[in-house]
Amino acid sequence: QVQLVESGGGLVQPGGSLRLSCTTSAFTLGYYTIGWFRQAPGKEREGVSVIGSRDAGTNYADSVKGRFTISVDNAKNTVYLQMNGLKPEDTALYYCARRSGWSLSLTATGFDSWGQGTQVTVSS
Predict the structure, then answer these.
(1) Rounded CA gap, 46 and 95, in Å?
(2) Which of 15, 75, 96, 97 is most buried as measured by Cβ atoms within 10 A of its Cβ?
(3) pLDDT tier for residue 29 given thresholds of 50, 70 and 90
(4) What are the φ and ψ backbone dihedral angles of 3, each rounded to 5 degrees?
């Protein structure tokens, strides 16, 4: 059974850092694009970052460029989202999801399996 499990969320002060992990199972990670999305209360889900299959590259939302970094460890079947310089507006439930193909689009179209999410709260 395909699974994606997020971890690493928590409470952090503005300017702080967190590293989210998306641990996957039952599929070959390198053949899929993995995306990170977030949704804050009362707001629409937002694509944060994607990393393409087979070294197809990465993409970031303008709101996180220069602060967040997505990476993959195929040996550990895990995708990471390093988040630095966190701001209160980064507070949200963060999800990872997988999509077939090489598209680096940040839309949710085509993502067929999702994790349950990990909460990130940025507050002093």
Answers:
(1) 10
(2) 96
(3) confident
(4) -140, 145
End-to-end CA distance of the chain: 40
Q: Closest Cα partner for 90 from 50, 36, 52? A: 36
Task: Give the distance, in angstroms, between the CA of residue 89 and the centroid of all CA atoms in the same chain.
Answer: 16
**Which pair of tokens denotes residue 32?**
């899929």
Closest CA to 68 of 3, 122, 29: 122
d(CA 18, CA 20) in angstroms, rounded, equals 6
List, for residues 66-103, the tens digit of each pLDDT value.
Answer: 999 999 998 999 999 999 999 999 999 999 999 998 88
State percent of the chain over pLDDT 90: 85
Q: DSSP for 51-98?
A: E-GGG--EEE-TTTTTTEEEEEEGGGTEEEEEE-S--GGG-EEEEEEE
Residue 117 has pLDDT above 90, yes or no: yes
Q: Please give the radius of gyration of the chain, using alpha carbons only, rounded to the nearest integer.
A: 13
Residue in the structure block whose two tokens are 């994790």:
115
